Amino acid sequence: MKVGTRVVEKKRVAPARDAERVMEAAPSAVGGDVGGGGGRCGGGGGGSSRKTRRRGSPRPLVQKVFDLCNEVFRGPGTVPRPLDVDRMKLLLDKMMPDDVGLSEGHFVKNNRHVEGTPRVTYVHIYECENFSIGIFLLPTSGTIPLHNHPGMTVFSKILFGSVHLRSFDWVEPFEGEDSLPSNVALARLKIDNVFTAPCNSSVLYPASGGNLHSLQAVTPCAVLDVLGPPYSGTEGRDCMYYRELPYSSFSGGSPVGGDTSSYRWLEEIEPPKPEDFPVDGMRYAGPQIVEGF
Q: Taking the complete model, does pTM exceed 0.85, yes or no?
């Protein structure tokens, strides 16, 4: 999902490039800048990228992810090939917190006594026109509201902690849909489970795999997201937010027969206000990504 400062442009949230609160990174890691997106892949798209690395040094795992992203994500309107999906998942399955400069103990200690709405933290690693890489840090009960990923393929890996994932896919258009309010559509529940690290990575697609989802932290947790292409209002990939409505709310003309327990109507709503969904930025403290390694 897109994070950061709200802008007056449809229902979109701008990148977390100028977060007002840059939290202190893990002291043992090398820092990088929050933000800096845009541009072509391999051409300075992220604030955490560098141009050179000493020859003979081993590639950090996050560098391997970046390099594979350049192969896997081929731009808007495309979906990674099944073989490439398997390659990316195998690589992400190996990812651990220290591979991106995170310390579970450090995060948990600094989020023990938080008053008010739990604040979500976003760590921006890299972004270009074809893909982006970032990490969401959620304290206990921290929530990312139900939102979509239009035309996007998203790989996720829980680095530590437990998170409740609830996801949906749209139901194909059906006769009688025109009678519904314009901001309401039918969706089917795909996933409603708690996932705890260590666990395998997951993937969602433009039209399947749970393209719309919400997350709530059961314990302090970190979720690495690799997605492509990134959100873009100018290219029709706005981040939209939704509210679940019971299936019984609109029954006329629905194509569902029999058991309706896994169906919900999703109502498009205005993006949450900052006080309802507070997001901070934190400096990326992991190995620096090198373009053209």
A: no
